[in-house]
């Protein structure tokens, strides 16, 4: 039964009734929470947990401890000078023997190879030529199996990489590494890849955002001033591409931009060019297609802001003697700033994470972070590095959203 | 910005220039679609103009080749399942959010819409690692769950927006007349929020139907969806059948989104009308 509010209004409040009301309200709240619970559990379990595990993978380093437990233990007391004491050699031989022929040996080799090129071969070679467990001088026997064990470097790397957490992948994602001495330094130029990749991703995203702003602003302004009937027609011209899947629009550009495609044919027919232009599998194609995909995300927030700008402001400026250009610059443009901020953030954040469009219309030199995350996941199977790249990308996105939230508020981010 | 009568020729030229520029930009937005659609009706083998003749042969191939019909069936099946799941979960959540005030509510809202903010490639890869440990890679269930996650925010947002205009007193009135909560929900709440729920469901379906990134990571050839089939076609050898498939995808999503826009405008009219 609903609480008897008539009695409350009449002032006849007794303790029992108040308790009843409180209980009823609590029951109602629990009912509402129960309605939310399935979604919250669903998203937490299938989205938040996977993302958290994904981020954790960028610092997770359980492999070496799992595969070489005795070796890690035996090296704990080693001071890092020259080579570790003989028991470490025996422990390594024992650990590798325990792994046997399983795929673990090559997984371990791959993991250590990230830290020091050649380590994979060393592990595989040692595993193939393991000394007899009964041998008296295990140290000499191991060095006989693979001479590198007589040097300090592989041991130092092994010890350095054997913590349960590692900064290794995050450093690698920034083209940094920890040397044998433990100091962080830049990797050799021929291996430096990711800073440039982030730079390229940011550059392409920034370019896309600027082009979208330059193209989208006049469209939104013209739409906002058009008569309602015209505006709703113009709006359809923006919405139809907006509603069309990204993949279909990318496919359309693949067809349009081919050497013999309609765009080149048209330009040749117009006499603007003699030979077909290379418009696809390069940066030009990436910009043409990405701007096309993302332009509605710029136009729609701008349009909704511009529609709310009262024309009286501009009339007031004009009546005070401002020329149209001055009125535009000092009155109209500042009033559209929230729309510009919202549109630019949306376009930038979306383009930073782009994967499909550059993969289909870009060349090898136009691929962005998303592509490498996919590549490291599917082909190279370096999940730690993929996670580190993803973590940095996610950090960037979160920072951008936070900046926008402070600047103009999140409610502006609604496109429609 | 209407132009005053005393505008100089330069100002007039700029004004007209802005309109022409806007027209060109709109042409850039819309023309690619209208240039590609006729190519799917070509009688030839190549995707070039002028068309050698008109034919439906590529559509016939699309609707008879098991590779494509299988992809279409997968897309529909996964889309319907993800839509059902997302719509039920999202509508319940929106109802709960609308009817309650508690500390940490914005956190719950944030969690529910977070899949919109995170780049899809990250969501897809994270899901891939997670599902790999659960043996859900290459299963229909895995893809349905992933698409549900991506579609859920749209349902929550759309239904919440509809509930903004919903007068909770109507439910109280029903209760005061003796209706149990279930009956009040079915006869009062649901009919009023139905347009919002339908919009949310359409949004969810289009999200799943057009989705490519999660499908690339989570689907095996057996679960290949229409977008995935198109993707592999485009990255290998683009044929007119792909154009036909793309047009089918385009028609379905634009038609559904147009219905959505109609519902949205109707809602706005009703709200503006006040007593609608």
Question: Any overview of this molecule?
Answer:
The complex is a heterodimer of chains A (416) and B (276). With 416 residues, chain A is mainly alpha-helical. The two termini of chain A are 41 Å apart. Chain A contains 21 helices and two strands. Chain A has three domains: 5-57; 62-166, no CATH class; 194-413, MetI-like (MetI-like fold), CATH 1.10.3720. In chain B, 78% of the residues lie in helices and 0% in strands. Chain B has two domains: 1-31, no CATH class; 66-273, MetI-like fold. In chain B, helix 3 packs across helix 8 (181-210) and helix 4 crosses helix 6. Chain B is globular. Chain B is mainly alpha-helical and 276 residues long. Chain B has eleven helices and no strands. The longest helix of chain B is centred in the last third of the chain and has 34 residues, at 240-273.
The largest sheet of chain B, given as strand count, sense and whether it forms a barrel, is: none
Coarse shape of chain B: globular
Major beta-sheet overview of chain A: 2 strands, antiparallel
CATH architecture of the largest domain in chain A: Orthogonal Bundle
| Helix proportion range of chain A | 55-70%
Uncertain runs of chain A with pLDDT below 50, 5 residues or more? Answer: none
> Could you give the distance between the termini of chain A?
41 Å
Terminal Cα span of chain B: 34 Å
Strand percentage of chain B, roughly? under 5%
* Rg for CA atoms of chain A: 31 Å
Write down the secondary-structure element order of chain B. HHHHHHHHHHH
